[in-house]
Amino acid sequence: MSSGFAGKTAFVTGGTGGIGWSTALALHDAGARVAICGRAGDGLERARARISDNGLAGMLALEADVSSQTDIARAGEILQERFGHLDILVNNAGIDSFQRLDAFSPERFGKVMDVNVTSVFLVISQVLPLLRAARSASIVTIGSIHGHITTAGRSDYVASKSALVGATRALALDLAPDRIRINLVSPGAIETPMLLRGWAVKAPDADPETLKAKAGALHPCGRIGTPEDVASAVMFLVGDEAGFITGTEILVDGGMSCRL
Ligand code: NDP
Fold first, then answer.
1. Over the stretch 154-180, which tens digit does the pLDDT of each residue have?
2. How far is the C-alpha of 158 from the C-alpha of 15, rounded, in Å?
3. How do the domains of the chain map onto residue ranges?
4. Whose CA is nearest to atom 44 of ligand 1?
5. Nearest residue by C-alpha to atom 18 in ligand 1
6. Is 157 among the residues known to form the active site?
7. Which residues pair with 180 in a beta bridge?
8. How far is the CA of 1 from the centre of ligand 1 (A)?
9. Which of 42, 58, 74, 190 has minimal CB crowding within 10 Å?
10. Architecture of the domain made up of 9-190+226-253
């Protein structure tokens, strides 16, 4: 599909999970040198094992919590040392939240905003010199259909993902003079560990396959999405073919938003 990724460098935050890993793999398969990050723990260990078991030469898995300024500064130093410039940044790391108003916790709200929103600014500002050094760079942030339509009990997650819609447009103006494009990819239901964890919270007794069929029926395309569906949209936006596209959003939701 996209061409011209050979010799390019990319950083995918939250690359240890479903969408991030698929995106990192797509970039790697297209010839880019890719670094991913995740917090210390099982996810990072599994990603490192997958990299070494599958001989994914050139792929780097960094330990970094995107809500920590110190971690992001250290990741930036490593990227500087290893890559020297950054052609592609994918702000993918995110956490879900199901918080009802009668149990509102400012700490939880702050955490959701830190990971889903503040991190985008933190990471971009940290790697800005590297993006500038690429002379023509592209950023994609992963939003959500919840930036537009939603269900009850999701107000903190919705606040975070809606914020990314406005932030993307404003950042497009700030970054354009440096020849850096930024766009948002907003998925509907995608089969990843996050979705499965969410179902376990909302419907602990239900069979995941039944929930998957029900969720699929809500999407005009007749199924829920795969991480690869999202990665395809990211690959288009970070490719040279999208060179005149900035400050906009692609919904990868199987048409779900058309229904509501
Ligand atoms: P996963 O849970 O599979 O992956 C989430 C990723 O984010 C993991 O790699 C996780 O890494 C990382 N992460 C979470 N918190 C932090 C942190 N503080 N610092 C660094 N990394 C962190 O979920 P998805 O792949 O589904 O989610 C990816 C993105 O897609 C998120 O932004 C999510 O909101 C969005 N999205 C997902 C949808 C879905 O249906 N799946 C729908 C719409 C949007 P680790 O745990 O190893 O630290």
1. 999 999 999 999 999 999 999 999 999
2. 22
3. 9-190+226-253
4. 144
5. 65
6. yes
7. 137
8. 25
9. 42
10. 3-Layer(aba) Sandwich (3.40)
